[in-house]
Specification:
Oligomer: heterodimer
Structural class of chain A: mainly alpha
Radius of gyration of chain A: 39 Å
Distance between the termini of chain A: 120 Å
CATH class of one domain in chain A: Mainly Alpha
Number of strands of chain B: 6
CATH topology of one domain in chain A: Hypothetical protein af1432
Structural class of chain B: alpha/beta
Number of domains of chain B: 1
Helix content of chain B: 25-40%
Number of helices of chain B: 3
Strand order of the largest sheet of chain B: 1-2-3-4-5-6
Helix content of chain A: 55-70%
Order of helices and strands of chain B: EEEHEHEHE
Largest sheet of chain B: 6 strands, mixed
Order of helices and strands of chain A: HHHHHHHEHEEHEHHHHHHH
Largest interface: A-B, 12 and 10 residues
Distance between the termini of chain B: 33 Å
CATH topology of chain B: Transcription Regulator spoIIAA
Shape of chain A: elongated
Number of strands of chain A: 4
Radius of gyration of chain B: 14 Å
CATH architecture of one domain in chain A: Orthogonal Bundle
Shape of chain B: globular
CATH architecture of chain B: 2-Layer Sandwich
Strand order of the largest sheet of chain A: 1-2
CATH superfamily of one domain in chain A: Hypothetical protein af1432
C-alpha cells in the first residue's frame, strides 16, 4: 500500500510538474499576446496619426494648388484687362456679376431653375472659373503696338489724312480762282464761284467726317453721295513707297506709284487688302465653329471702311473681334480640367451664343446652351452697356441698359427667365450701386419687363 | 544540407539561410498566412541546429514593418533559438531605422522576454 502510495505521490509530482510547465507556458504566451496587442495598438495609433498628418498635408497642398490655379486664372484675366483700356475691369466684374445671378438662380425653384444647381463648392468653383476665363482668348487679339512696324505707325484715325486732302483741294480751288483772275476773268464772279466751291467742300467734308463716327446706320443713299465725293481728285507729287516697312511696301509696290499721280479723295486700293495667311480651316471646322471666315484678314480701304453700315467695324474686323471666343475655347479645351471642372470651356465659350442659333462661334441654340452660359451672356452685355471706363462710348443709364437687354431678350438673344430673375432679385440695383456712376443710376420700372 | 533563399515580395521579407551560420531577414512582413510562410524557415533552422550548426550563428533581422502574427512568429522563432542556445553560440542583431519606433520597441520586448539570448539592438 505504502509503495503504491509513494508511486502515486511521484505521479502527482510529475503531473504537478507538467501542470506547472504548461501553466508557465500559457502565462508566457498570454504575456506575449498582451505585449503584441499593446504594441499593435501603439503602432495603429502611430499610423493613424501619421495618416492624419499626411491627410492634413494633402489637404493643404490641394488648397494651395487651388489657390495657385485661382491666381493663374486671375493673372490671365488681369492681363487681358491690363492689355487694353477697351476692356477695363471687365474680366473681373463679369465673374462677380455671374456669381450673383447664379446664386439667385440657385435659390429660385421655378421653370428652368429647377434643373439648375450652383450649390456645392465645386459647382460654384466651376462657374466662377468659367466666368473668370470667359474672355481669356482675348490675349491673342492684336494690339497696334504688337504690330508696330514703323515709327510713325499708330492707331490712327485716317479722317485726319482725308481732311488734309480736302485742304489740298481747297487750296487747289483757291489757286484755280487766282489763275482765273490772272487770266482776266471777272473778279467778283470768280470770288462768288470760289466761295461756293469752298462751301461745297466743307459740306462734303462734314458728311464724310460725320459718317466716320458710326453712331447711326448708314443708308444706301448716303453711301452713294460719299462715293461721289470720293471721286474728287488731287495730285500727289511725293513718293508714297518710301518710309514703309517691308510688309506694307510689298503691297504698295503692286500699285502704280509713279508721280505725279492723280489720286482719288477716298479710295480702296490693293495696299489696303491684308491677306489671310495660314488659316487652319480644318481645325476651324473640327472645333465646330460656324461663323463664316472673311476672305481677307483685313480690308483697310478708305471708302470700304467709311461705308460700314452699322458701327465702326468692317466685316473682317468684326470677325477678328468674334475670334476671341474661339480662342477662349481653343485655349480652355487644351487645359486638363479635372472631372468637376469639365464644363469650364463649354460655359466660358458660349457667352456670345443666342437662343436661336444666330450667335457665335458655334451657332448654338437654347438646347445646347447651358444655363451658366446664358447667365454669363447677360452679365457680359450688362457690364459692357453700363461700363463707364470705355474710351469709345458714353456709359448708358441703368434704365437704358435694361431696356436694351429687354430688346435682346425679345430677339431671343438673351434668356428671358434669367433676365427676369436679374430684375426681380434686385441684382441689377446691387451691381449698379457698386459699379455705376451716380449719374447713371436712374429709376427703373421693372414691372414692364416681368 | 543546402542553403535556402526566399525572395522578397511587396509584403514578405527576403530570407537568407546560409549553412555557414548566417541567417538574415530583410523587408516587410505582412504574409497572408504568416505561419505557412515562415514554416520552411523554421523547419530549415530546426534541421540546421540538429545537423549543420558550426557553433557560431549570426542572425540579422531588419524588418521595417510587420503585422501582429509576425510578432507572434518572431517569439516562436526566438523560442527555437533559445532552445538551441546552450549548445550553440548565437548572436541576434535586431536592426532598425532611427525613426522606426515600432521596430525599436519590438526589439526591446524580445530582449525582455529572452534573457538567455544575446540580442543586440542595432540602430541604422
Amino acid at each position: 500500500m505504502a509503495k503504491s502510495n509513494s508511486k502515486l505521490v511521484v505521479e502527482i509530482e510529475d503531473l504537478k510538474q507538467v501542470f506547472e510547465t504548461t501553466t508557465n507556458k500559457l502565462i508566457k504566451d498570454i504575456n506575449r499576446h498582451d505585449k503584441i496587442m499593446a504594441r499593435t495598438d501603439k503602432d495603429q495609433m502611430r499610423e493613424l496619426k501619421k495618416l492624419e498628418s499626411r491627410l492634413l498635408e494633402v489637404e493643404m497642398l490641394q488648397q494651395s494648388q487651388k489657390e495657385l490655379l485661382d491666381a493663374f486664372i486671375k493673372l490671365i484675366a488681369s492681363a487681358i484687362d491690363a492689355k487694353s483700356k477697351y476692356t477695363g475691369g471687365h474680366c473681373e466684374r463679369v465673374p462677380e456679376l455671374s456669381i450673383m445671378i447664379a446664386n439667385a438662380a440657385n435659390a429660385a425653384t421655378h421653370g428652368i431653375f429647377k434643373e439648375f444647381s450652383a450649390e456645392t463648392e465645386d459647382e460654384k468653383r466651376e462657374l466662377s472659373i468659367a466666368a473668370w476665363l470667359h474672355d481669356c482668348g482675348k490675349v491673342t487679339t492684336p494690339v497696334y503696338v504688337v504690330d508696330k512696324a514703323t515709327k510713325l505707325e499708330t492707331i490712327y484715325n485716317r479722317i485726319h489724312e482725308i481732311r488734309t486732302r480736302f485742304e489740298v483741294i481747297h487750296r487747289d480751288k483757291t489757286i484755280e480762282a487766282l489763275n482765273k483772275k490772272l487770266n482776266g476773268e471777272d473778279v467778283n464772279k470768280v470770288d462768288i464761284w470760289l466761295e461756293s466751291e469752298h462751301k461745297k467742300l466743307i459740306e462734303e467734308f462734314e458728311l464724310v467726317a460725320n459718317s466716320n463716327v458710326g453712331a447711326e446706320f448708314m443708308k444706301d443713299g448716303v453711301k452713294d453721295i460719299i462715293k461721289n465725293i470720293s471721286s474728287r481728285t488731287w495730285t500727289r507729287n511725293f513718293d508714297d513707297t518710301i518710309g514703309l516697312a517691308h510688309e506694307e511696301k510689298k503691297r504698295v509696290l503692286l500699285e502704280n506709284s509713279t508721280t505725279p499721280q492723280v489720286e482719288q479723295l477716298l479710295s480702296d486700293k490693293i495696299r489696303h487688302i491684308i491677306p489671310r495667311e495660314d488659316f487652319d480651316y480644318e481645325e476651324y471646322e473640327r472645333m465646330g465653329f460656324k461663323t463664316k471666315v472673311p476672305e481677307h484678314l483685313y480690308n483697310l480701304g478708305e471708302l470700304y471702311n467709311i461705308c460700314v453700315s452699322a458701327g465702326t467695324l468692317s466685316y473682317e474686323e468684326r470677325f477678328k473681334i468674334q475670334e476671341h471666343v474661339q480662342m477662349t475655347l481653343v485655349m480652355l479645351e487644351k487645359l486638363p480640367f479635372p472631372e468637376y471642372l469639365k464644363n469650364v470651356p463649354l460655359f466660358a465659350g458660349a457667352h456670345h451664343e443666342t437662343l436661336i442659333g444666330t450667335g457665335y462661334p458655334r451657332q448654338l441654340t437654347i438646347d445646347d446652351m447651358p444655363i451658366a452660359s446664358r447667365i454669363m451672356a447677360i452679365a457680359d452685355v450688362f457690364e459692357a452697356l453700363t461700363a463707364s471706363d470705355r474710351p469709345y462710348k458714353e456709359p448708358k443709364t441703368l434704365s437704358a441698359s435694361i431696356k436694351i437687354l429687354s430688346f435682346m431678350v425679345k430677339d431671343q438673344h438673351l434668356d428671358k427667365d434669367i433676365f427676369q430673375l436679374f430684375l426681380s432679385s434686385g441684382i441689377y440695383k446691387v451691381y449698379a450701386k457698386k459699379y455705376l456712376l451716380p449719374a447713371q443710376i436712374d429709376e427703373v420700372n421693372i414691372e414692364q419687363y416681368l | 544540407m543546402e542553403n535556402l533563399v526566399i525572395k522578397e515580395t511587396k509584403y514578405t521579407p527576403k530570407i537568407v539561410l546560409d549553412t555557414n551560420g548566417i541567417i538574415s531577414l530583410t523587408g516587410k512582413s505582412y504574409p497572408e498566412n504568416t505561419f505557412e510562410f515562415y514554416e520552411p524557415m523554421m523547419k530549415w533552422i530546426e534541421n540546421y541546429f540538429q545537423t549543420d550548426s558550426i557553433g557560431m550563428t549570426t542572425i540579422n533581422i531588419e524588418i521595417t514593418y510587420f503585422n501582429s502574427s509576425s510578432s507572434k512568429l518572431f517569439f516562436d522563432f526566438f523560442d527555437l533559438l533559445e532552445e538551441n542556445s546552450k549548445d550553440n553560440k548565437i548572436v541576434i542583431n535586431w536592426i532598425y531605422d532611427e525613426e522606426n519606433e515600432s521596430a525599436e520597441e519590438a526589439g526591446e520586448d524580445f530582449i525582455e522576454d529572452f534573457e538567455d539570448l544575446d540580442i543586440n539592438l542595432v540602430q541604422k
